[in-house]
Structure formats: C-alpha cells, structure tokens
Amino acid sequence: MSELKRDTFIYDGLGFPVRLINVPLKKVFNEWILDIDFNQFHLAVLLMLVKKRSRLRGKEVRFIRHYLELSTHAFAKLFGVTHTAILKWENEERKMGVGTEICIRLHVLDHLKVTDKEFRKIYLTFTPEVITKKPSQNIPLDIEVDKIAC
Prior knowledge:
Strand content: 15-25%
Helix content: 40-55%
Shape: globular
CATH superfamily of the domain at 37-138: lambda repressor-like DNA-binding domains
Oligomer: single chain
CATH architecture of the domain at 37-138: Orthogonal Bundle
Largest sheet: 4 strands, mixed
C-alpha cells in the first residue's frame, strides 16, 4: 500500500467544500483515498462551522443536523420552528433568523460539552453584528489535518 501527503485537498463529500491542508492519502486498490479518522474530521468541521464568522449555509445546517442525528421534525422542535422551515434553510430557499442561528451554534457547543471557558470564548466571537457582516459564501473551510487527531 502506497502513502502520500498532499499539501491541500478539497473534500466535497459533506455537501460543501472543506480544504484539507497536509492531508495524508493512501492508495487502496489503485485509488487514492483520504487516510484520516472521519469521526475526528467531522468533529473538526462541526467546530469550524460553529466558529465561522459568517452565516451558515444550507448544506452546513444539514451537516449539523445530521451530526446531531436529528430528523427535521426534532431539529425544528428544538428551535421553535416548523420542519418545513428547516427544509427551506437546508435547500437555501429561505434564510434563518440570526437569533436562531446563534441558538443552533450554542446548542452544538452544549452538545459537545465544551468547557464553560471555551463556550464563553466562542460565544463572544459570533454576535449578530459579526456573523451578518460577511456575506455567506461557498468558500472552503480550511482544516489543517496535522492539528486534528486523525
């Protein structure tokens, strides 16, 4: 089995682009595949989304919902909206309110059981003014694979 390390690799398997930096690849059955722990990778993506300084996009909301293993109905109930609203957010037919987006981010932090200190630090980085300042774009999230436990 051959091994390789690429400087960057754009991964689209989550429905949105993630730029992996210093990603190890291995050759299996004559095909190059990512040589990472996908559970750790998904956790790193989740944290990047929570800390993101722009609005969440539909596919990112879907990723969060799937990571939390919630149906559209259960996710909607958590945030006091209809499952139809969730579907419209995920399909980018409608934007969610900034307050709801902040609640989603806080819920994820609570789900991950981050420390109070980390919770407060992250909370202070995504005020409504901060996340609405930058337009939501399909710019890849950058994740340095060396810095996550893959």
